Amino acid sequence: MAYTEVSFVEASEVITLAGFSDLLSLEKLAGGWANSNYILTLKNNEKLVLKIWNEQTLEEVDYLLSMTSYLSNNGIPTPSPIRFKDGKLMCVKNGLAWTILPFIEGDWLEPNHSSLFDLGRIQARLHMVAPHSELKSNFSMGGTLFEKLFSIAEEKNQWTEFLDMLKIENSRLRNNIENLPRGVIHGDLFPDNVLGSNEKVWALLDFEEVCHDILAFDLVMTFVGFGWKNGEPVTERWKSLLEGYQSVRVLSDAEINALPDLHRLATLSIAAWRYWQFVINLPNTKHTNRYIEMTDRLDKKLPF
Predict the structure, then answer these.
(1) Cα–Cα distance between 221 and 218 in angstroms, integer?
(2) First and final CA of the chain: distance in angstroms?
(3) In a domain, 117, yes or no
(4) Which of 65, 80, 211, 289 has the fewest CB atoms within 10 Å, i.e. is most exposed?
(5) Can you give the CATH number for the domain in which 125 is found?
(6) How far apart are CA 200 and CA 195, in angstroms?
(7) pLDDT tens-digit readout, 120-140
(8) CATH assignment of the domain containing 39
(9) pTM of the predicted model, to two decimals?
(10) What is the domain count for the chain?
(11) Which of 30, 28, 27, 24 is nearest to 46 (CA)?
(12) CA distance linking residue 142 with residue 210, whole number of Å
């Protein structure tokens, strides 16, 4: 993982460009595989988040910032990026995008009934936001990544049992879910992307997978993130998430019937991303076999 070390002087210079001053301290913020994050504390006790985008191009960051601002302006609880004095949402240093966000105090959301009900409700609200005219249709952890893995395997003659299975499953599953309702999806609502309390969601974070795709796929992806414990699906967690979701948007019969296939595709998407990141991109770490956690789930009995 690339990481950008930031000095006190550099952080002070960047916040000055956004109209802030009197930096008191900065500390690294844990989490994230593609960005460098810091908490900045000012002398008036205001806190900001400084984010350096290590793996996205300037064009990709500009797009993501525009989408995040759009969703925040449409009532979705996510921190909206702070504009610099030149009107832009990022500044560029050493070819990388640097952004500033408001800091939200809180913990990662706990998977109890009240919090999952609220998460389901907010996710349904997200799904009902009219898509931005420039919203892309490519889910980056889905078909595009799968094809990238297949191309690498073909080029290097490095087909594995996982990639063989992924190729077969992708073709079969895509045929079964093609005509389901689509709209704005987050794509990655895992516990480290949701801040909240024991009862309420405070903020959805990291809309880096945001796109126009199958709505029910996004819902089961959230279950992949929040609904499992010790390698087993927890029925009560699914019921809480679904109850909250359907208090705002009711799933159609077609969506309900497709849930097992959608969950399988979501699980394979996470497995594929981990395979790409830890087998191909960053090999020989303790995370090399993390994708197997997902493939081990494929034959478990689901609550839908």
Answers:
(1) 5
(2) 37
(3) yes
(4) 289
(5) 3.90.1200.10
(6) 9
(7) 999 999 999 999 999 999 899
(8) 3.30.200.20
(9) 0.93
(10) 2
(11) 24
(12) 12
